[in-house]
């Protein structure tokens, strides 16, 4: 009985650590891509982009992604996408990947992108 409690306590302490194992690596990869000159694309509306955007980002709203594929360049170009909270950037990533783009990373929301790149 006592060993079961000890085991349960250890699992409760250790298991949450596994939830965060992958996140720093993904954030670091995004930061590295931005640093190396990846195309950073804000898929929010022009109004949202005008209020605040990541330095150097271009604005291609989610509703225009399919019709503006030529602006993303070659299919193996490194592209980092972001929006407000991650929904639109995930949709944009899916569109680009279906069109054959291979170097696509979804940074999620704008705060995630700022957080990822500020750690370098």
From TrEMBL:
Instruction: Note the CDD domains from the entry.
Output: RHOD (cd00158)
Keyword flag Electron transport: no
Domain Rhodanese, which positions? 34-118
Tell me which UniProt keywords the record has, alphabetically: Transferase
The source's superkingdom equals Bacteria
Lineage at the top is: Bacteria, Pseudomonadati, Spirochaetota, Spirochaetia, Leptospirales
Instruction: Read off the SMART domains from this record.
Output: RHOD
Q: Does the keyword Transmembrane helix apply?
A: no
- InterPro entries reported for this sequence: GlpE_sulfurtransferase (IPR050229), Rhodanese-like_dom (IPR001763), Rhodanese-like_dom_sf (IPR036873)
Question: What's the name of the protein?
Answer: Sulfurtransferase
PROSITE patterns linked to this entry: RHODANESE_3 (PS50206)
List where this protein forms a coiled coil. Answer: none
GO MF annotation terms:
transferase activity
Q: Sorted alphabetically, which Gene3D superfamilies does this protein's record hold?
A: Rhodanese-like domain
The record's annotation in Pfam families points to: Rhodanese
């Amino acid at each position: 009985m006592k060993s079961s409690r000890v085991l349960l306590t250890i699992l409760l302490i250790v298991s949450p650590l596994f939830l965060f194992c992958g996140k720093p690596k993904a954030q670091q990869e995004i930061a590295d891509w931005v640093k190396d000159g990846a195309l950073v694309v804000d898929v929010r509306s022009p109004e949202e982009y005008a209020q605040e955007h990541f330095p150097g980002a271009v604005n291609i709203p989610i509703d225009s992604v399919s019709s503006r594929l030529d602006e993303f360049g070659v299919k193996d170009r490194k592209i980092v996408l972001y929006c407000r909270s991650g929904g639109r950037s995930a949709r944009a990533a899916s569109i680009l990947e279906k069109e054959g783009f291979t170097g696509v990373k979804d940074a999620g929301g704008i705060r995630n992108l700022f957080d990822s790149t500020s750690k370098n």
